[in-house]
Design goal:
By secondary structure, the protein is mostly helical. It has a domain at 33-108. The protein has helices spanning 5-21, 26-45, 53-107.
Length: 138
């Protein structure tokens, strides 16, 4: 049976870790990739090849820094959006809980009592003052 995307990702991580564990000279192993990246930024800085080597290298370094800063900005934006989405989901869950509690009070019903036992993946269950855990048989 074919592996799921999650399993393929884990297999790739496993292979990568095992490969790096067997690597004696990390610098030598990554030298070709670093040279290719530097070459890319140098070509971008001086596509016609008219600059001096020192000027081309200086500009390439700035293009590399700009590239890394752009990646950092994207990551920070992604983290902020994820944080905002989690906060919005938590707020909606709280509103739903409060609405059900209000309905329960108005109707004198305990039908929604199970909702209080449902917890967000971002919360950690805790024992109440009597030492009982939520959802535990009494």
């Amino acid at each position: 049976m074919p592996a799921t995307p999650s399993e393929r990702s884990l297999l790739a991580s496993l292979a990568s870790h095992e490969s790096w564990a067997r690597t004696e000279d990390r610098v030598a192993r990554t030298a070709a990739a670093r040279a290719a990246a530097l070459s890319r930024f140098e070509r971008e800085a001086d596509p016609d090849g008219v600059l001096t080597s020192a000027e081309r290298q200086r500009r390439a370094e700035h293009l590399h820094k700009a590239h890394m800063t752009r990646l950092s900005l994207k990551a920070a934006t992604s983290r902020r959006k994820a944080r905002e989405a989690r906060a919005a989901a938590d707020a909606l869950e709280q509103q739903a809980y409060e609405a059900e509690a209000t309905l329960d009070r108005e109707n004198g019903s305990g039908i929604s009592h199970r909702r209080s036992q449902i917890r967000s993946p971002n919360t950690v269950p805790t024992a109440d003052s009597a030492g009982a855990w939520p959802g535990a048989a009494t």
